[in-house]
Amino acid sequence: MRTPLIAGNWKMNGSLELIDAVTEALAGAHLDSNVEVALIPPFTLLMRAGQALADSPVRLGAQTLNPNAPGAHTGETSAALLKECGVELVLTGHSERRTLYGEDDAAVLARVRAALEAGLTPLLCIGETLEEREDDRVEAVVLGQVDAVMGSLEPAQRERLVIAYEPVWAIGTGRTATPEQAQQVHAMIRARLAELSPSLAEGMRLLYGGSMKADNAAELLKQPDIDGGLIGGASLKPDDFIAICHAAG
Prior knowledge:
Belongs to the triosephosphate isomerase family. It is found in: Cytoplasm. It comes from Kushneria aurantia. This protein is of the alpha/beta class. The chain has a single domain (about 5-245), classed as Alpha-Beta Barrel (TIM Barrel), CATH 3.20.20.70. About 45% of the residues lie in helices and about 15% in strands. It has helices at about 15-25, 45-50, 80-85, 95-100, 105-115, 130-135, 140-150, 155-160, 180-195, 200-205, 215-220, 240-245; strands at about 5-10, 35-40, 60, 90, 120-125, 160-165, 205-210, 230. It has an 8-stranded parallel β-sheet with strand order 7-6-5-4-3-2-1-8. It is globular, with a radius of gyration of 17 Å. It starts with a strand and ends with a helix.
């Protein structure tokens, strides 16, 4: 049985006050102990979030990392610095990093490797744009992104990842893949993992990351190959985020 994971990606949003509000709301929410929850705020809020979550089962995540060793990389943040804040997992390959900041498959792989070497859990994001979907390239794009990372890792390393499928056309647009569309792609990803190892496919958590909200979470999470959600805007609203966490239980 795969443990559901609900991870809130705040992107370039949030405040010290919101950290306190969300962590206090989560503490009093009586969440199902079989559901794993993570908060992924901006770098500037990681230390406060780490302190607030120190005695909580909620995990702390970061939105990216620089794969280089500490040194002369002005404006960047290494895995070692993230761990100082209490970070346990880190997003790699988010669609905004790929499309807005030019991170290609090689850059994503480097970040996955750096996270693994530091003992962090890489949350690998994959997904297609609207143009790629309309061109009937979903399989080629999504599985190509899976292969670019999984094909370069050792079997034991693969087992430490979490994968989030994020249809880029459904992020911040108000559009959401239907549960059937999301399940179809998740099943396709799991089938590709099974070609590497049946046990890997069975154990790998696959999250849906395309505008999951309080009012659609339950239906998405009912799908057999959807093991949680990478939540964007709804994670900035404590009541909505908690409702999604409850839907996963």
